[in-house]
Amino acid sequence: MFFKKCSLPVLLAVVFVLSGCSDDSGSGTGEAATGQLVVYTSRKEHLIKPLFDRYQAETGVNIQFVTDAAAPLLSRLQAEGENTPADILVTVDGGNLWHAAEEGVLSPVESEVLVRNVPAHLRDAGNRWFAISKRARVIVYSPERVKPGELSSYEALADERWQGRLCLRTSKKVYNQSLVATMIEADGAENTQKVVQGWVDNLATAPFANDIQAMQAVMAGQCDATVVNTYYFGRLEEAMAAKGEQLPLKIFFPNQDGRGIHVNISGAGVTTYAKHRTEAIKFIEWLSEVEAQQMLTDINQEFPVNPLSKSSAEVQAWGTFKEDDVPIEVTGERQAEAVMLMDKAGYR
């Protein structure tokens, strides 16, 4: 067997050939020949390919894949319909997975393995998608200018004491939209509106395009604290260590006295028109097992979803936390409301 990244036309041609050669006198499942999979993924190639390689080495299954942003992949699946070559969608953010399921491009899966390995709040209620890794959205601060006692929750960053001291990533990106969506679920729209307005009032500068830039602004003294996904902290920490430097920032886990820190996910689901459905389910099950979970945390500096798995040593060094166990699908259900609320507050 072999492994490669293919263009869409090549993948379509492969599927059509396989469909024409399949044996209709077999089990009657309607599946194409086994031993192969096609994956659409929004994950960067260097973060996901090692898992494909390992699975291929263990099983001999040939995995072809297409990488793109989440929105174009969803549009592609919708346009292709029953002609799609994709068996699996792998993407980030609970909201993206929720939208994919609601648009009908993902199908329910019956799997005792996935139900056992993936906590209920990190999978779709209808079992159309399952988390395979998680990341926490933490407060990152300058220990030179911020005392840990000043920090408590996302909501507290709206206090007047933070005026001119806060940096944030743009609201146009899904991670802050998902955070605000879970805040609406927990605190209500009116209270969340006040909090987001407070954040905007406390900004030291215009929102940044990404989490790395926001942390660099804290390092430069433009602001004292920001809110980022943990793996971005890990990447910046790693980049500075490679230069023999220590990252002059600290992580704080917010909302530990309440609902817990907001976590988001990367996840996977079997497409509605998967040609290799049985093999697709097996692969997602494998992703939820301890070996693959360990690879995910080592490669991506994320947290495992399987309770039996451990984070990498680098991730463990950040400490432990209580996480919000709100169903992650809330990030999709309340996304539109969150976007409108942020826009009303002037959070750009």
From TrEMBL:
What Gene3D superfamilies does the database record attribute to this sequence? Periplasmic binding protein-like II
| Residues noted as binding Fe cation in the record, renumbered to the chain | 231-232
> Which N-terminal stretch is annotated as signal sequence?
1-22
Asked if Ribonucleoprotein is a keyword of the record, the answer is no
Keyword Repeat, does the record have it? no
Q: Which Pfam families match?
A: SBP_bac_6 (PF13343)
Which PANTHER family has this protein been placed in? IRON-UTILIZATION PERIPLASMIC PROTEIN (PTHR30006:SF15), THIAMINE-BINDING PERIPLASMIC PROTEIN-RELATED (PTHR30006)
- UniProt entry keywords in alphabetical sequence: Iron, Metal-binding, Signal
Q: Where are the transmembrane segments?
A: none
Protein name from the UniProt record: Iron(III) transport system substrate-binding protein
GO terms of molecular function: metal ion binding
